[in-house]
Amino acid sequence: MKILLLCILVLCSVVSSYSTVESGESRHISGHLVSKKYSPDWKDLDTRPLPHWYDDAKIGIFLHWGVYSVIGFSEWFWSNWKGGDKKITKFMKEHYPPDFTYQDFAPMFKAEFFDPTEWADLFLKSGARYIVLTSKHHDGFTMFPSHRSYSWNSYEVGPKRDIVGELSTAVRAAGLKFGVYHSLYEWFNPIYEEDKKNNFTTRYYAETKLWPDLKQLINDYKPSVLWSDGDWETYDTYWKSTDFLAWLYNESPVKDEIVVNDRWGIGIPCKHGDFYNCADRYNPGSLQNHKWENAFTVDSRSWGFRKPMTLNDTLSTNQILYQVVSTISCGGNALINVGPTQDGTISPIFQERLLDLGNWLKINGEAIYSTSPWLHQNDSLNQDVWYTCRKVKHSHRHPTAIPRDNDNIIAIYAIFLKWPTTNILLLKDLSTYLHNGVYKIELLGNEGLINWNIKNGVTSIELPDKAKVHSENAWTLKMSLK
C-alpha cells in the first residue's frame, strides 16, 4: 500500500509540473528544459517566444562575402551580367577574355589573408553581440563544404577552407553569437530552373539541394540566427517553410536558441518569423508591434565588397549612429553590413566605422543593450532625440511593447544626435514624467548631475561644456529617481 501511494504521489507531481508549461513557452522544470511542440503552420509557429538573447543583443554585424567579392561590383554581379547590364558587359569585354565565365572567378577568391580571430576581435570591439555570415548567396556558391554543392564551395575551390566553420569558432571564442544568411533560391541552378519551368509544381531543388544544405548548416554549425533570403519567386508551400521551421523549433540542436527572419515565400515578409526584416534597410521610424531588424549597409550602394567604392559612398559615423539609435528606440535590432575583400580583409574605412561605434557604445551602451522602448520614441519637439528605457523586468515575450502601469522603470534614456549651440537641450515628452517624481539627470560618461527646469511643458536641460564631454558623436542623458 505504501509503495502504491508513493507511486501515485510521484505521478501527480510529474503531471502537475508538466501542466505548468504554457502554450508557446519553454521553461525549466525540475532542472530540465521542456519545450512545446510546434505544428507546421504559421499560426502555431508564431506563438513561439523570442529567445531572450536576441532582443538583449540589439546590434549585429552582417557579412556579404563570396565569389562576387573578386570582381567587386556587387553581390548581384552575375545576375546583372547575364541580364545584359551594359556597364558590366562593356567592362568584361575590355578586361577579360571572350569565353570568361562567372565560375572562372572562383579560383581567384583565395581569401589568403583571412584571419577569423582578427575579424572576431574587430567585431567584439565594435560592440556587436552577434554576427551573420552569408553561407550562400544567390549565385549558389557555399562558404562551407556543402554535400550538395560539388566543386562550387569554398572548401574545394578558391580558399579551400571551411569559412563558416572557422568564423563560427572564432566568433564564439570571442563571446559573440554566430548566425548564417542563406539564400533559398539560386539564380542559375538547373534543378531550380526546372522547378520554375514547371510553375513550382515540382520540388526537386527544394528537396535535393535546399533542405539538405539547410540541415547540414544547422546540424554542423549550430547557428543562433538563420537569416533567410531569395524567397520571393514562389510561395512558402514550395519551400515547405513551415515544415522546416517546425523541425527547427522542435528537433534541431538549436531549437531553444535560434531565431529566424521573415523571408520564407511570397506574402510572408513582415507577417511571420521570430523577427521581421520587411525590406532591405527597413527603418520605419516608429514603434512596431513585433520584433524587427534594420539590416543596412555601410557602403550605401552595395552589400558585397565594391572596388569602385568612394568615401562619399559610405555612411558616416553619425549616419550609422542615427540608424542604430532610431532603430533600437523603436524596438528593433540593428544589423550593420560590411563586405570583406576577395583576399579576406575588411577595408580600413569599414574598420574605422565599426571601431567608432564600439567606442561610442563603451560610454552609451547602457542606453542600448537590454533596453525596452519607452512611452515615446522620437521626441515630439526635438527630432534629434530618441528614447529608450530600462525596466526591472524586461518583457521578452513582448519586446516591442511600451511600459505598462505596473512596470518598474529604473531609468529613461534620451539619446540626442546633435549638440545644441546654446548648450541648452529642449525636450517635451519628458516633461510630464519629470513632474511626477524627484528625478536626477546625468550625462553618461561624465560625472555630476545636470540641472534642468520645466516651463510651459518644455524641459530645458543645461548641458556641460562640450569640450569636457567624452562622447564625440551622440550623447545620452539618463533620468532616474534620486
From TrEMBL:
Alpha-L-fucosidase is responsible for hydrolyzing the alpha-1,6-linked fucose joined to the reducing-end N-acetylglucosamine of the carbohydrate moieties of glycoproteins. GO terms for molecular function: alpha-L-fucosidase activity. InterPro entries: FUC_metazoa-typ, Fucosidase_C, GH, Glyco_hydro_29, Glyco_hydro_29_N, Glyco_hydro_b. Belongs to the glycosyl hydrolase 29 family. Its EC number is 3.2.1.51. It is an enzyme of class 3 (hydrolase). PANTHER family: ALPHA-L-FUCOSIDASE, ALPHA-L-FUCOSIDASE-RELATED. Residues 33-366 form the Glycoside hydrolase family 29 N-terminal domain. This is Putative alpha-L-fucosidase. It comes from the Eukaryota. SUPFAM superfamilies: (Trans)glycosidases (SSF51445). The lineage of its organism: Eukaryota, Metazoa, Ecdysozoa, Arthropoda, Hexapoda.
